[in-house]
Amino acid sequence: MLLILCALYYLAPLYVMLTTSVKTLDEIRAGNLLDFPARINLNAWQKAWNGACTGVRCEGLAPYFWNSVKMAVPAVLISTLIGSVNGYVLAHWKFRGSEIVFTALMVGCFIPFQVVILPMARLLGLAGLSNTTAGLMFVHIVYGIAFTTLFFRNYYVSVPDELVKAARIDGAGFFRIYRSVILPLSLPIFMVCFIWQFTQIWNDFLFGVVFGGTDAQPVTVALNNLVNTSTGVTEYNVNMAAAIIAALPTLGLYLLAGKYFVRGLTAGAVKG
């Protein structure tokens, strides 16, 4: 019973957002916040997608949504792959100073976003990537590698050293062991990193507003601009529809792969 009450408590805002997004403005003003709509109206969704104003442009969230897709998908894949190789090295190919490297990466996980803004802006300027989707993707890759390396290293230490040693005795090299021994065991932790990185990157606002130019802004920045753009009347239904559109990818990812997230986090908790 307690779990049901907790679930209802956390689902209540989503219910309000969904019902408000399919109401007309007149119905919103006249009715109760929790009332179910008398008739489902999807005009607010259409306007939020391709007609709402986000500042001086009235193109809706569509172009910014695809900016986020073009930024998030490659950044997630690249940072996860690099973190996987790093974690494999730190867990099974230790070298002199590897613990120092691992400690430095752990420290990197706790560096606030605000600390890296100025040096990253300088670096992007020198590389000619300022105000571009590629530059924003690069920022998220660099910032995410510390987290993915930490996840993979802690997972790979649970893989018995005997497997790696046996493969080395059989003549397998670094990449052959990674491809044939480590990679087949890595699905749970890959799912953890995919979900973690995608959520962090998709929901990021600070990097998007600082490093994203006018044509490279992600959907979170556009959503903020949409809500704060005044055209005389506050369209609550459009705002709610826009918020749900912006949240749909991460919500869908958790619904489809949430069980792998918990399984991957606990899989490396016990060695052996």
UniProtKB/TrEMBL annotation:
Keywords: Membrane, Transmembrane, Transmembrane helix, Transport
Family label: Belongs to the binding-protein-dependent transport system permease family.
PROSITE patterns (UniProt xref): ABC_TM1 (PS50928)
Chief localization: membrane
Membrane topology note: Multi-pass membrane protein
Localization annotation: Cell membrane
One Pfam family named in its UniProt record: BPD_transp_1
Organism listed in the record: Undibacterium griseum
ABC transmembrane type-1 domain ranges (all copies): 65-257
Record's protein name: Carbohydrate ABC transporter permease
